[in-house]
Amino acid sequence: MPAFASLVALRRLWSVLVAVGLLLPAAAPASGGIAVLENRAEHAFAQRVTFTLQAAADTDITAIYLFFGPEGGDTTTVPLPVTPAHTVTVEHVHDLRDAPLPPFAIVNYWWRIEDAAGETYTTPPEQFRYTDNRFRWEELSGGGFTVHWIAGHGDPVFGQTALDIARQSAEEINAELRAPLPPAVDIYIYDGQYNLDAAMVLTGQEWVGGQAHPELGVVLVAIPAEGNYAAKMRRDIPHEITHLLVYQAVTPAGYRYVPEWLDEGLATANEQLPAPDYDVALENARAAGRLIPLQDLCVPFPPDPGRAMLSYAESRSVVRFIRERYGGPGIRALLRAYADGASCASGVRQALHVSLGGLETAWRASLEPQSPWRAAVEQVGVWVGLWVLSVLVALPLATVGRRYGHGTG
Predict the structure, then answer these.
(1) What is the C-alpha separation between 115 and 225, in angstroms, rounded?
(2) What is the average pLDDT across 146-152?
(3) How far is Cα 137 from Cα 352, in angstroms, rounded to an integer?
(4) Same domain, yes or no, for 218 and 155?
(5) How many of the other CB atoms lie within 10 Å of CB of 287?
């Protein structure tokens, strides 16, 4: 009992000392007598971010400013109302419904504090990742990749399958692109398209099947942990990883010059199990004379799902045509041209030595079906060519034989 009483007394003494300011929490290093006692940010996905600061100074603190923004994006500055005092606590709630942040972005924030003595202190930048914390995420890492999936919607086998496909596809895609690998890649797998769509709409983005944030090394896909989920992984994960590698190949400054048909065309062509809808959409548009001009695919695709599907299908077909005619060197030459800031049309001319219109004409011609008689003629032509070649080879040999025969006769 005496020991318990002593402990209670010590706790009361500690409370009194803290109350009168004789003991304070450990403060961050500051300048001119300004100290930071608390500095934190908490977010509720697609709703709000709450920034909190508590600071103390030898004289009254008279002004506090908050600075924040996504990495690589614009910075927001917020002056906060302050009642002058030696110790102040301020809070700012940023409404994500009015001003959304990019999902899964790294958000940097810092504060500027001013006191009545004219001293100022700017805190070192802090950061947090703006994750979709409506869900609890499981994760599995390896080889520079981390797969995250919603807890309860997939087991470790599900995560390992996604991780294996990510690593394998990155290696295969980079055999052509030869880009430096990102230092880290995070793949977030939603349990269904509904939740991914909801996340995109909540953050101000409408139609999207998946999404890559190349500047962050982040991929978002929707793959339910049911049925043959590996097939959907082989389609969606390589697609989004391609965007990351294209970004790495052209550097951040050059990525904005890469035309949409090349970026999305590479991504769609790299899908290990592509959707048959691409071929159907392409053939229907070709037969109806409704193919989208290649020039119109230099810019972001339309949001309409039908037009977007055709845009992906055409871009995939154009990239496959370039691969067949120019090979991997042609693809890399295009990326080098756009990395140097070439326009959509001039990049094609520099890399492939043909105009954008000329490329489109050749590609469209490759889509035209061959009539049966033309295919037969071309097939016969191959055999005729081989026969002619054999005759041309045989004639000199026969002549030589005759010469040697006359010489010995």
Answers:
(1) 56
(2) 96
(3) 45
(4) yes
(5) 11
What pLDDT digit, counting tens, does each position of 203-257 carry? 766 545 568 888 889 999 999 999 999 999 999 999 999 999 999 999 889 999 9
Average pLDDT over residues 24-31: 46
Q: Which residues contact 234 (CB under 8 A, 6 or more apart)?
A: 165, 169, 271, 272, 273
C-beta of residue 133 within 8 angstroms of C-beta of residue 45: yes
Helix (H) / strand (E) element for 364: namely helix 356-367
Residue 5 lies in a domain: no
Looking at residue 297, what DSSP letter applies?
Answer: G
Domain total of the chain:
3
What is the residue whose two structure tokens read 């070192």?
124
Top pLDDT among 211 and 358 is at 358
CB atoms closer than 10 angstroms to residue 350:
16
pLDDT over 90 (residue 153): yes
CB neighbours of residue 168 within 10 Å: 14
- Where is the domain boundary, 86, 103, 129? 129
Q: Convert 52-76 to b/e letters by CB count within 10 Å (16 or more is b).
A: ebbbbbebebbebbbbbebeeeeee
By residue range, what is the domain housing residue 90?
29-129
C-alpha–C-alpha distance, residues 50 and 44, integer Å: 9
Instruction: Give the residue carrying structure tokens 């009015």.
Output: 98
Same domain for 122 and 191: no
> The tokens 């080889």 sit on which residue?
143
C-alpha 25/C-alpha 35 separation (Å) is: 10
Residue 269 structure tokens: 């062509």
> What are the angstrom distances between the C-alpha of 261 and each of 102, 324, 358, 366?
23, 17, 16, 18
Q: Which amino acid is at 73?
A: G
88, 39 Cβ separation under 8 angstroms: no
pLDDT tens sequence across 107-128: 999 999 999 999 999 999 999 9
For residue 24, is it within any domain? no
* Tokens representing residue 190 in the block: 């939603």
- Please identify, among 229, 250, 271, the residue that sits at the C-terminal boundary of a domain: 250
Residue 35: CATH number of its domain: 2.60.40.10
- DSSP type of residue 125: P
Q: 6 in a domain, yes or no?
A: no
DSSP-derived 3-state class of residue 57: strand
Task: Say if CB 66 and CB 75 are below 8 A apart.
Answer: no
Torsion angle, CA of 342/345/348/349, rounded to 10 degrees? Answer: -90
